[in-house]
Amino acid sequence: MNINKKTHRQLSIQNSLFYILLILTIILLAQLSLKTNVSSDWTANNRHTLSDTTTDFLQQSDSVIIINAFISPSDQYRSALESLLSRYQIYSDKLVVNYINPEFSPNLVREFNIQQQAEMVVSHGKQQVHVYDLSEQSLTNALISVSRQKEQWLVFIEGHGERTPLSQENYNLSIWGEQLKLKGFKFQGLNLIEHSEIPMNAAAVVIASPDRAWLEGEINIINNYIDAGGNLVWLADPNTHHYLRPLAEKLNIEFIDGTVLDPNAELLGISDPRFTLVNDYAKHPVGEAVKSVTLFPQAVALESIETEGIWQATSLLQTQVNTWSRAELIDEEPEQEFHFEQGSDTAGPLSIAYLLSRKLADNDELQRIAIIGDSDFVSNTYIGNGANLDLGLAIINWLAGDDALINIPTKTTLDNQFNLSKTQSIIIAFGFLIVIPLVLFITGYIIWRKRR
Fold it and tell me: What are phi and psi of 11, to 5 degrees?
């Protein structure tokens, strides 16, 4: 090819256009990278990605929430804190994040009573919650807590052997109580003999399986509370629900005598058929908040009596078809196998929880009542099984009228443990210590022989 002045000029123009287009492409890609955030989280429990329920909450929130993060610029946790908060700010422009260097802000440190580096103070109006660890669960709980419109008090009835969130025995409800506190709820124990009225600021009253009969006057107090539009959750059991029979009659609920038996528990390695597995939930905000199976030890079945124009009843928890209610109570550990007995037992599927609601006459608010045929599922012993905790939190959020917060479960870390039996461990040890070295030795010996 002959290079003359004309071709040389054309090549110069082409090169200039190429470099101009290259520079423009780089600028456009830089602008696109600044305005676009695309990422993929391949970790086992998506620890670098906010859960769907957290993002839904952030998108629903319409009030400004301030997060004051106290951390030094050179602190080792600075990048982790910024990464966590930036993930939240992507989904909400209502979050105002302030990074405060505690070394140069002693007055703010004293004002907020800061205890450590990377501590966050989440504020909304007069409400403040401190967050001490860099986890989605803690930060989301704090955002939920300050976003509540008013103080939410739960009144736990005492004096008849009820379970309580104020004690840490396996039988009691302290783990459930701690999670409710993180959501912004406050507790008050109430003995109806000592107090003849239930506080008007109670978001809901909790009756957690009394093991002694109530006095007539105490029944009247609860009835008056319900007549006034109060919300209630009643955790019953096969051997305790009869102590509050007048309350069941008022709510048009009938308990099926006996204990629910579920042969499907064997799928989880549970030989006791009194453990009931539930994965069939009502199409209801509470049911939709539960994403996996729940476990109910020694549950009692119940049914709603049809009444026109009083309560709207929803069967929340439905057992599987091959379950049944044993007519006789089973108090001790069962040793024999149980079989359905026609005429005395009640065949499944059975309901072990009902949600009742009705519109109050003086306003448009809904009165809400939950009756669960088991109190063990939120006890310290069993609340960690399946989605029991999510169900317990969703019920309370629904009772308190916080419908927007119902579908935000506790995010837990997946169990990555790999458990081997003794036989499997021996096989692996034998293979790595003896078989593989022996194969390598024989292979090497054969190659050596052939080369000779």
Answer: -65, -40
CA distance 383 to 392: 8
How many other CB atoms are found less than 10 A from the CB of residue 122?
Answer: 24
Taking the alpha carbons at both ends of the chain, their separation in whole angstroms is 63
Model pTM? Answer: 0.69
Residue ranges of the alpha helices (H) in 381-452? 388-399, 422-430, 436-451
Strands (E), 62-114: 65-70, 95-100
The closest alpha carbon to 378, from 183, 242, 180, belongs to 180
H and E: helices and strands count for the chain: 12, 19
- What average pLDDT does the structure give for the chain? 85
> Which one of 56-60, 69-73, 268-272, 434-438 scores highest in mean pLDDT?
69-73
Report DSSP state, residue 240: T
Please, which pLDDT band fits residue 431 given cuts at 50, 70 and 90?
Answer: confident
To which residue do tokens 């504020």 refer? 123
pLDDT at 63: 83
Read off the pLDDT band of 408 (50, 70, 90).
low
- What are the distances in angstroms from CA 335 to CA 35, 271, 272, 332, 381? 65, 10, 9, 9, 22
Q: Which one is predicted more confidently, 415 or 228?
A: 228
Scan for tokens 């065949």, then name that residue. 347
Output phi, psi for 406, to 5 deg. Answer: -65, -40
Q: d(Cα 259, Cα 236) in Å, to the nearest integer?
A: 12
Question: How far apart, in whole angstroms, are the C-alpha atoms of residue 51 and residue 53?
Answer: 5
Give me the long-range contacts of 76-84 (CB less than 8 A, separation at least 24). Answer: 77/117, 77/118, 77/134, 78/118, 80/118, 80/134, 81/118, 81/120, 81/134, 83/48, 84/134, 84/136, 84/139
The reported pLDDT for the residue numbered 339 is 77
d(CA 255, CA 373): 8
Q: What is the dihedral of CA 305, 310, 316, 317, to 10 degrees?
A: -20
Taking CA atoms, 359 is separated from 153, 230, 231, 274, 373, in Å, by 22, 12, 12, 37, 25
CA distance 205 to 218: 13
Other C-beta atoms within 10 Å of 408: how many?
Answer: 25
The per-residue DSSP string of 249-303 comes to HHTTEEE-SSEEE-GGGGGGT---TTEEEE-EE-SSHHHHT--S-EEEES---EE
As a whole number, mean pLDDT of residues 367-382 equals: 94
Q: What is the CA radius of gyration of the chain?
A: 31
